[in-house]
């Protein structure tokens, strides 16, 4: 039985994590953490009596296997440090850490031979899409990326689209061919080392992404569509199982696949 | 039997037109015109003996019902004027005429109660896509356009994409809502009165176009794909039949549908 | 101000309808009906004091403009009859009425010059898709339909897919060409007068539908995707406004578009 | 310089191969073979003087590195046997060999440490699609396949669709979950160990294939589209280069990727 503490247990993603744990025969929720709550009664959150609720890191005195964190950018570094020090394997979905912070945490965990993962995207379809794009990039010299999100997403392009372009560039080791273009309206998209990125913002979409590779007389398209953020839990569950058998901190779900 | 003269009969599109006529039980090729040829023997072009070949407009002395023109921008205005004067219904696929020239020709034909058509796109799937987009625009306030063409197409966006955006704007009568955006890489596409246009250029595509309409919890997508330019002949054939029963010059195949 | 009674006001769709009414400046919820409730206090349902709650048809003594019904198949006929008798325009989304019942209700409403609508699908994207398919069917002789739904949908094909095939057949007036086929695994789909229908059932989909028309060298695809059933409310809202100006009962949202 | 003999050099695919060789700086066409020709003059086929043309296997006395075969099912086994005996690496695109024949040829080549490949599909996009599907099958328990081909393709499903289903099944090691279904029209597709296959036949398509994987709240789609059979030459070229460094006969282009 894998014993789990959830940081941010009563937030939007945290509640999905708790549900995933309850639905998994080999996982047990042992603790919930959130620094901004006063009520420490598990029943107030619909949780069984034997789950301990904490609002201070220093009070956490449980033995646990896994620390799942979907909290907030300002807290995630200290949370993860705490977990590693206690020998609890971190599974971190909270975004916002600097590259430097990630490096520190990785060294800490690796020194203790402690498994763990920090990932910006736990969506399996997105992670596989990126992985496949890396391979396809070796065989197709030209590619473009289209991402489609709901109208309230302000930043463009999405992190996944940009990451995909970066992985394509790294796989190729050189810039993509540029075709001459007469484009007064700026319709040819954003450029990342020659791979064009196009971002759409429309109601009706949650989060879709596609990479198109073009060659003589053929195209190859890898696309993923998210219709419900519950999808992330499939990746979290996979990560929990995988890091139990690892002895270092991994950055990116694609490294586990 | 509909008697037809083809201007540009031995060019790439002209040859497709000749084939379409030969494959149609109710059409007959009576003449071919091209000002840059010397050889006026129909057999040199694989045509039957009773087809007359001309290299000068003034030599054309045939009675014909239809003048199909897939020639060159610099010649199309004079060709069409000639056809109308002779009472031959023009079916014009050659691009490059100014709005002023089109207006002059329309007045000439309308005054003579002569049917005819000038169209920039004879692809039925593209024309229907534009027509449907006009209707959908009344029910969906937000839309974006993606067009994908082969890597050698230099201009962006395509005429069809821009026309579609124009028709959407006219159907709505107002600019589309703008969402705030943080887009340092310019990935949000070209803007036509709020409708964003995205152009892709990759080998493997011939000419694809899609319009996406987004509303609360749903999207509607109208897309067309061209895999062979022979597709235009379906529209030319339709136009030939339709203009036989018209008594004015029509601009745009969508007006016949 | 359009005064509305909602039948099935506290069901899954009913609650969406109530929210839509509350979000609309020109609509007012005046009553809620459900025969299986005991509690008639509007506050128990989060509704304001001036909304009357009823559990018996005969108790409903309100003046109202519109009766929206998302209840159950066994009740909808009597509900609609009641509304028409009272001079309240019906907007019916509940499925399950026979053709005979629909005919009776239509006659009743038409005799009173009362506007109304009975529709199996209030999704605008689905309704427009069907409408466009009817037009495209006149220009393309061949088409196939693909529908994709969540894994729990037992019946196949979907009502929308079958309706689309029916509308295509009616628009053409004849069966679609059959190509000879060697298909031992039965992969060519279900057949409706020559138009093939393919049904997919996979987690991750809510309700998607696409119609593909194929011609020489080109395809035209009309597709719609539902990511949230809240989408139906756009169609219900449209219907409410439209039937206020009608004097007969309309069957099918496509007739209003 | 890689010296190549092309079997079926003047057929439809053979001519594409010859063009590919001529366009490649490191390849040289040294011979052409076709048992049904009488004219052995290379100029008759638009080939340079130093290319030898043969109509009998036993006459072929050239030193060559590669034997590319796009001929006919009844001849390919003997052709390949001949090539292996002569120490010429076979690159075989001709379909129609039995599993037994393939095994014999593989043993022959392997015993001589001779590189070579027999592949039913040289389309890189199709081969990558199959490869990615194998990986995705490990993470997604449910998938369906759609293939779309021109109306003249009689057999259904396509070899690529069936192969993809087989690879998915092998990757999972067990049958896919079956959902209960009420499907009187047979719209749920053909079944291969639980993975459903849907085949469309419409004008306008050349050869398209897509695999859809569904999970909770997300889908992953890998699709490939062929617009011109010239696309196969990218895979043939890759195969030529790869088998130069191999010492056994490989079955399936995916093994080289």
From TrEMBL, chains A, B, C, D:
It is found in: Cytoplasm. It is an enzyme of class 1 (oxidoreductase). One of its GO terms (cellular component) is cytosol. NAD(+) binds at residues 8-13, 93-95, 119-122. PROSITE patterns: DAPB. GO terms for molecular function: 4-hydroxy-tetrahydrodipicolinate reductase; NAD binding; NADP binding; oxidoreductase activity, acting on CH or CH2 groups, NAD or NADP as acceptor. One of its GO terms (biological process) is diaminopimelate biosynthetic process. The active site is at residues 149, 153. Homotetramer. NCBIfam families: dapB. Catalyzes the conversion of 4-hydroxy-tetrahydrodipicolinate (HTPA) to tetrahydrodipicolinate. Belongs to the DapB family. This is 4-hydroxy-tetrahydrodipicolinate reductase.
